[in-house]
Amino acid sequence: MTPPQSKARERVLAEAERLFTEKGYAAVTLRDIAKAVGIRHASLYHHVPGGKEALFIEVTEKGLARHVAGMETYLQKATIDIESQLRAVAYWLVSQPPIDLIRMSRSDMEALPPETARRLMQLTYQSLFQPISNVLKAAQHRGEIQHHNLDLIAPVFFSMIQALHAIPPFAIETTLEDLTDEIVKVLLNGLHTQAV
Fold it and tell me: What is the total count of domains within the chain?
């Protein structure tokens, strides 16, 4: 049973999500979370009686729901064309902390019971890749793009956008949004020079 929401519990969830995102499930202890929130370790169990695993599951589900809602909001503001819609998804993703899916799938999920790990990875796919795949399939249906394995292109696009977070600020002379525009153009137009 999840305890009722309070400002203190919201702080616990926010710090837990930040720490799990930055360091991963295995590297974070409940003591780390309590210290980040500024409460005693024993007091943390009042806010998270299910322990670390339940807390990780809760903040992962909450974070994925935030991504679904955020992408939906950005897509609703975009025009109905592939370039605008891919930009909208990309702008949402660069506005959020990076998601280390490799660590998540190879380390975090390994530390969880197999059924829980499968469920969370399926939810991750549905929350992060499916909206992109839907944008691509709708564009294909409108005749904007050719038939390709769009279920493969969606995670590749996601990964390209996530990789922008790894570029140090001193190495770029532009914004992350400008870089996402470039990635969208390359994806849609390719790297080859156009025949004249």
Answer: 1
What is the torsional sign of CA 19, 21, 23, 24? positive
Alpha carbons 184 and 91: distance in angstroms, whole number: 11
CA triple 70-66-59, angle to 5 deg: 165
Model confidence pLDDT, tens digit, residues 146-162: 877 888 999 999 999 99
Q: What is the CATH number of the domain that holds 138?
A: 1.10.357.10
Tens-digit pLDDT profile for residues 83-106: 999 999 999 999 999 999 999 999
- Better-scored residue on pLDDT, 5 or 67: 67
Alpha helices in the chain (DSSP H): 7-23, 30-37, 41-47, 51-77, 82-94, 101-103, 114-124, 130-141, 150-163, 176-189
CB atoms within 10 A of CB 7: 7
In a domain, 8, yes or no: no
Which residue shows structure tokens 């990875």?
Answer: 121
Tell me the whole-structure pTM to 2 decimals: 0.86
pLDDT of 37 strictly over 70:
yes
CB contact set of 181 (below 8 Å; sequence gap of 6+): 87
Q: Do the domain assignments include residue 126? A: yes
First to last CA, the chain: 65
Q: At residue 165, what is the residue type?
A: H
Domain of 168 in residue numbering reads as: 57-189
